[in-house]
Amino acid sequence: MQAHIFYKTNVPNYLRRTGLFKKALEKGLKRFAKQNIEVNVIFVGEREILRVNKQYLGHHYVTDVISFNNQRPWVLPPDEPWGFGDIFVCYPVARKNARKFKHTILQEMLMYVTHGALHLSGMDDHDPKDRAEMDRQAEEIINHVLA
């Protein structure tokens, strides 16, 4: 797995913990992390997450995290790396929600990266039971990464 972390908004240097985000991403991707894939994590501001949400999902609101999973192009040779997915994380929402949920900002950012990775690995959170399982797994991953 190749992970690329981009900071397209004003994330303070002390929170640019690229190594931790890559660890959380790898744990959240599970078996997919062992494949020859590329995943991008892009930290953005509210204006950009709103644009992405409107353009690609038809939603007209700011959200915390959006993930896009890409299908493997059939024309690629089996050993060729491919763009498995993208995760957009809204840093200002992470900052606000950290206060609200009494987490550190870093924990909240890790939660969104992990949540996006779990979506890319095939998990869903459309019903309360599935959401609870995703939250449980994300919390376990974050605790492991921060240990």
What's the arrangement of secondary structure elements?
Elements: E1 2-7, H1 18-29, E2 37-44, H2 46-57, E3 65-69, E4 82-90, H3 91-101, H4 105-120, H5 128-146
Parallel strand pairs: 1-2, 2-4
Antiparallel strand pairs: 3-4
Helix pairs in contact: 1-4, 1-5, 3-4, 4-5
Descriptive keywords:
147 residues; Collagenase (Catalytic Domain)
What report would you give on this structure?
With 147 residues, the protein is an alpha/beta fold. The protein has one domain (2-146): Metalloproteases ("zincins"), catalytic domain (Collagenase (Catalytic Domain)). 48% of the residues lie in helices and 19% in strands. It has a 4-stranded mixed sheet with strand order 1-2-4-3. α1 (18-29) links the parallel β1 (2-7) and β2 (37-44). The longest helix is centred in the last third of the chain and has 19 residues, at 128-146. The chain is globular, with a radius of gyration of 15 Å. The model has no long low-confidence stretch (mean pLDDT 94).
Summarize the structure.
The protein is an alpha/beta fold and 147 residues long.
What overall form do the CA principal axes indicate? Answer: globular
Order of helices and strands: EHEHEEHHH
What CATH first level would be assigned?
Answer: Alpha Beta
What's the CATH superfamily, by name?
A: Metalloproteases ("zincins"), catalytic domain
**Cα distance spanning the termini:** 22 Å
Give the name of the CATH architecture: 3-Layer(aba) Sandwich
Main beta-sheet annotation: 4 strands, mixed
Report mean pLDDT, rounded to a whole number.
Answer: 94
Strand order of the largest sheet: 1-2-4-3
Radius of gyration: 15 Å
Relative helix content? 40-55%
Number of helices: 5
Number of strands: 4
